[in-house]
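Table S5 (text form). Sequence records supplied for joint modeling of the two-component complex.
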Amino acid sequence: MTGAVAAGPSTPPPHPSPARTCEVCEGEGVRTAPQRPLPPCGGGLGRGGSAARETAAIASIHVTLPPALCTLFPGAPRELALPATTVAELMQALDARWPGMRDRLCDSRPAIRRHINVFVDGERARLDTELRPGAEVLVMTAISGG
Amino acid sequence: MSQRLLLLIGTKKGAFIAESDPRRGSWTLAGPFCEAWPINHVVGDPDTGTIYAGGGNEWFGPAVWKTSDQGATWTHSSQGLAYEEGATPIKTVWSLASRNGTLFAGVEPAGLFRSADAGGSFSEYPALRNHPTRGDWNISGAGGTMLHHIVPHPQDEDRIWVGISAAGVFATEDGGASWEPRNRGTRNDYSPDKYPLVGQCVHGVALAAGAGDRLYQQNHCGMYRSDDAGRNWTSIEPGLPSTFGFAAAAHPRDPDTLFLLPLNGDQAGRFVPDGKAAVWRTQDAGRSWQDLRRGLPQKQAFFGVLRQAMATDRLDPVGLYFGTSSGSVYASADEGEHFACIAEHLPTITSVETLMVGT
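The corresponding structure-token record, covering 505 residues in total, follows.
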């Protein structure tokens, strides 16, 4: 998948650090380093959490979640607003509201799961992709299976 | 509440639960559960009646699902079910086992975890994954490593056996602090060294009734018995129609009785020999074998039975159950003498276990 990385417009440039591997190509070519530390994989019981309340904090972004994910977390809405400045922060914010949701979307590398796509303002993103205030974030399940 | 026997069925598209009374004459089926995720193993805790289902979804990763009301409601968790940053992530949960309040989970890539809070969170037994022989695991395999069998000693909490594909049987006797390969006498036909320390492709491990020193093993390359807790294995293949198969189920009270379901060969289709289904039973610890066919299809049957897809109950006479790759479940209420098909047209069945609930 070298060269197939279609990160968001504010994705940081390639970084020489060999310790962190691009979650999209998983080591085949482009390596990047996050501008912010990636949080550890969280997790927890996937019970239905309380319904998210739209938060009018700084850097609030608009998120759309896939239906199959919402089914796993009863009470999780398809669309919500959250404060986050990177996709990694967004994952943390989702996990804080619905414990375990980050584990469903990210793996322990850490990276967005191979069969999950996150688009930021229409561009495929990674955990280190920055989010502008008001960004539109679309979390989608990939076309896969048979 | 009257007693009910549950068959816990894992499939490629969700978990199912079949239910009967102890006479086992008729069954009802419920499912699919777990949002139709691929489920590799479903087990029950006989002390609490809680049911756990382990699997993994390509989109959302590995998880252990849990129901405390026989399938009416489910939760899921993978908290702690992860390797360190940079390691190949866990793809799926392959095997579960419960003992005295501890839930064990085996995963792919091979590793063993435990949960002390009924599946809410997990922690790894790192000494197994960091075993000095790790570099020789899977040396002749191409299917990856899965920890697909967990056999806790029923009384001694320090003792556990595990089966890892293309690596072999490992045992701990100190609660998981250290692990020892236990493959002596099992063959690897796909290695220049036919009897290596590790690298054998165990398919199934069954603990015989008794003190915990007798084990049976279905391997990719043969069937075996050990009378010393897995330190040495003896071939029990003579009299069987092939050396290949996946499933093995031990009698819950007679240590000499074992049920196997041999398949025609690893490169011959992996279905029942000659398209005729049979369970093979020994009642003398593998010295002789009897094929049990009554009620099973005897023509044009081209299914297999996977490694965790055969089980016994603890009733008298013992019930025997298996699920096929073609989605049928066969049940016998008389130790394999007669079978009946109790479910069909399910997804590919990955596991069958039993659980008695009620009083």
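Note: Chain B has one helix and 28 strands.
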